[in-house]
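User: quick one, fold this
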Amino acid sequence: SMPSEMLLKIFSYLDAVSLLSLGCVNKRFYELANDNGIWLKLYSSSLHPKWRMKSKQTEAVSLDCAALHDKKPGYWKKEYIFKQTCAFKTRVMRLVKFLDPYTGLPCKNKEAMKVSGLSWIIVLKDKNGKERVVEKPKLSFKDTSVTVLWYGTDWPCLDILSTLKLFGVTPLLPDQSRPPNKNGPRRFSLIAEYHLGNLTESSVAIGADELVQLFSLSPGLLVGIWKEKNEIAFVMANLHYNQLLERSILGSATVQYTPPPNKPLLDDIDSEYGLHDYSLHLDLHGRSCVYLCGSFKCLFCRKRDIENGYLRLRVVNLKDNRKHFPITGTLGICWETDVFKGNVKDCFVMDLTLLDETGKPFWCFSAPVRMELSTKSSGLYDYMGHIYTADYADSEGRVCVEFVWLEETKEYIIVSLVLYVSTKKVNSWYGTNY
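Assistant:
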């Protein structure tokens, strides 16, 4: 029953986040909270410091003013949000420009995430179109990736689920002076979408223990299923730092962020010579523990190493035992829920960062990988034991690793590590033709 003029006067004392929240109350509040006069005042005071000298004049601006009269309701609200969002993205992306010379990746990821108020959620959609949001993940940071783990006691039944979407979530109007308001307006950026129909058939089985089975969905999603109930126990996403913030912030709620194409250096690639001066940073971990963290320099391939649509980069040679190196600890992926904890053996999360000759990230991923017992013997006098293999493949390349298990010392030794980079990836990166 209160007159609109009085409500507008009250609304004029509120900040932008409060106005956006008021607009969700009912239709009348939505229309009043879109008032151009209120939003023009916010716009001018926060984004144009030179206008602040005329603050009294701005407050007294009449409805006949062209800035108000010629604009549709909500125009200055949209302009304010757009300008604030652009300023926020610029502030965050400025932090990402600082690169770690060791990995070639942004070194201020954690600081940028804190400034942006970034978090991650998953949205489960059933076959009837109903959606369920799962928040409050547990984070685990590594040198080149972050592992995000969701678990709870009331997951929807797996049989009725159709898709799972992974989003980066940031406050629509972040305020550096205050922590993010969980109930305030938020912005969603789609990172990946996964289809859960026939999950056990369409995904890769990573391993199992007494309680759960692990299934991998590309890119980098691990789903734990209770053995007896055939229901979701937890969901684990592995996010590589390369373009992590861009994908988590710059995309929209329906369209994923697409990175700009690489600008190749002129006359820097020769198909007769092949790739040269590449660097590899490799992490193997089980979420809570690290098994291997190493870097390899001066990787190259010659023309004879190009076949079947792949360029071969040999990192560790089976015959060169000087470059063989041990793995620390027993390989496995740790998991947990509200009640149970476990460790699925003979699998791990691989974080791979391949840098080109200029130090730019060329091929990056963070994904679960399983180990398999090979039928062949090691053939090496130095290592007498079982051979295990671990392979990973995506649209950009393949990774093939061979381990030898030494029973006496209870450790794995990596005796072979080979990367196969897709010629399509190289051609699109350099604008050449292999």
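User: anything notable?
Assistant: Confidence is low (pLDDT under 50) at residues 50-64.
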